[in-house]
Amino acid sequence: MNPDDLNAWGKIHFICPCHQKNSNYSFDLIKKGGLIYYKCNNPNCKNCFSSDVHLKTMESLDKYIQEKGTPEGFTRYFREKDIRFKTKYIETKKITNNYKTYIIEVIKMT
């Protein structure tokens, strides 16, 4: 993998653990107090986190793939204020012949 390949913002697609086989709850971008947050698009879910988690996930996943050669098994924990998040690799989806995205589940731990 080209090291700069993962730095494209769209290389990671977040999903929420409230997703099921038939529904794929992902996140909408919202603005709160001048900052950008991801909020689960399931109206019954309160999973929400800042875009910093996206940046940290891109950096960690890039290092992981460089070390392991694959995203399989990637899991990282992040803290944002008093809330802990777990990011976990689920799968790689091929969008076109030259483009793929990594599906990452973001779990709100506390």
Quantity of strands, as a count: 7
Radius of gyration based on Cα positions: 14 Å
Mean pLDDT: 85
The termini sit apart by: 34 Å
The chain-level structural class is alpha+beta
| Uncertain regions spanning at least 5 consecutive residues | none
- Tell me the major beta sheet: 4 strands, mixed
Report helical residue fraction: 10-25%
Relative strand content = 35-45%
Number of domains: 1
Physical arrangement of strands within the biggest beta sheet: 1-7-6-5
Helix segment tally = 1
Order of helices and strands: EEEEHEEE
Shape: globular
What does this structure look like?
There is one protein chain. The chain starts with 11 loop residues before the first strand and ends with a strand. The strands form two sheets. It has a four-stranded mixed β-sheet with strand order 1-7-6-5, with helices on one face. Strands 2-3-4 form a three-stranded antiparallel β-sheet. It is built from one helix and seven strands. The chain has one domain (8-108). With 110 residues, it is an alpha+beta fold.
Quick recap of the structure?
Helices cover 16% and strands 45% of the residues.
Present the secondary structure layout:
Layout: E1 12-15, E2 27-32, E3 35-40, E4 48-50, H1 51-68, E5 75-80, E6 83-96, E7 99-108
